[in-house]
Structure formats: structure tokens, C-alpha cells
Design brief:
Length: 311
Amino acid sequence: MEKTEIIIHTKLTIGVSACCMGSPVRYNGKGWDLLKNLGREKNDFRWCPVCPECMAGLGVLREPIRLSGGDGTKVWTGDAEVKNRKGEIVTNKVIEGALACIEALSRAGAIAYVYMDGSPSCGVYRTTLKNTNRGNPPGVFGAKLLELGFFLIPASDLQSPLKWWDWRRRLLAFYWLKNVPLDSKNQLYEAWYKTKFLCRELNQEWTQNIGRNLALIVEEDVKEFGDRFRKEALDLLRKPSNTKKITNSLWAQYSYYKKLQGKSIEEINAPEIKRNVTSIAKELLLMERKAHEDKVFFGTSPVLYRDKRSN
């Protein structure tokens, strides 16, 4: 097995709440262009903006809506309602709008979605922005995104270079693992090895258990084991890391690189060196580039996107 990073040339499609892409489609006619924070990296993806409230026909400007009687999941089962500020029931319209957006994302081939938390439609962990009140999460559209297994990215994290780097590396690994064949023990072992450093950062115990069990399986058990491994690993890759874990992983992988190549990268700092998240993100991008150039496997970020035209 070649111990180098995985290069994909497929430009992934990411769905995004249209108000986060600068479209003035919120109930009050406002929106924010949060994708501008990604700089040139924005062009590494295709974006599919949707707005379930607009597709519901509620229009702009419109009365704000709220969930009544339960969360968005219960709206789909008929056990909760959606009302606007005037008390009018708009449940069916919002459901139709959410379904129209899901259809658009399906046609676009989107596997991920950047959601606006705090929205009763797009929200996943909050459906209101009032003080510390979480409302009734998930929202109507958010509930459907969760049900369908989308890789979900909170829009607020696009403003942090480090958080975006974390989401991006996990999304690329998620896409690769979702599609890679796992029909033999060798394929299983390669998939585990390529993702184990990232998964170990996210959940060390689970990763070690998979490694131990993988060594014991026989060929007739490969499919069952592979299905379980893929599902559990994809669930794990949806969950964010944190600054401490990321900087420790960076240093461990850099130490491996330095030992293997016999050379240092001055800009890479030890975990105990205090610096801001922007500086850490720059170090990670530099480490990715250097490892790629020197054909060293940077397991912290195992899957990279490269445009074929630039290679």
C-alpha cells in the first residue's frame, strides 16, 4: 500500500442556505456573504444555494415563522405546526419548500450542506436567535437534512480559518470513504489506514478497536464488517475536532515528516506555543503542501482536492 495522501479531482457540491451566500432572502430582506471568508478556496467547490422559506412561497419580505407544538421532526409526522407571527399556520407550505430544496440538492449531487443555525427551517441545533433559547431544534428543513445523512457545516464556522480547515479535511475524507470499495480485507485495511490518524484524533478508542478487530476478521465477514466500519466512520467524520487535538496532531505528523525527510519547517510550532487560530490554520495548510510536494503521507488531512488543470 502506497503511504501517500489520496488525491481527488471531483469538485464536490455543497448546498448552502442562500442567505449565507449573500442572497437577501431572510424574512427581513437581509443576507450575509459568508463564503467570502474562504477566499480562493471557495472555487474548489460547487455551491448550490437554496432557501426553503422562499421555495415555500412565503416571499421576501415575510412574517417570521416559528415551530409550535414540537420540533421540526414532529412537523414531518404531523405532530407539530409552523406558524407565522400573525398566528397563521404555514406548515404545508414550509414542508413543500423543504422538499423542493431537497430535490434541488439531489439534482446537484450535494453531499454536504452549510446551514444557518437559529432558523426554524434551516436550523439544526437552534431554531431561534433569542438570547440563549435554543427553540425547538432541529428545524423543518434541518430535520430532513439530518434524516438523509448530509454532512452538515454550521455557517458561523466559515468565519474561522481553523474551523473551516477542520470541516474541509473531514468532508473530503467523508466523500472518499463514502465511495471507496470495501469488498476485500485489503481494501478495508487501506481505508482504515488512510483515515486512522484523522479518526484517532476524533475518537482514539473507536479507531484502535477497529484496528484490532480488522486484524481478526476472515474474508466471509468482510462485507458485514465493512458496512459497519463505513457507517461508524462516516458518523465520526461528521463531528468537529478542537484546537488542542488539531495542534497535537499537527505536531505528531510534523515530527514524523521531519524524521523521514531529515529537514525542518521553521513555521511549524510546537503545541505549547501560543498563537491564534489563523496562524494554526496557516501552519496546517503549509504542512499539507510540504507533505504533498515531498510525497509524505500527512494523515491528519488524508484526502486532498486538486484541480486536474493545475497538475
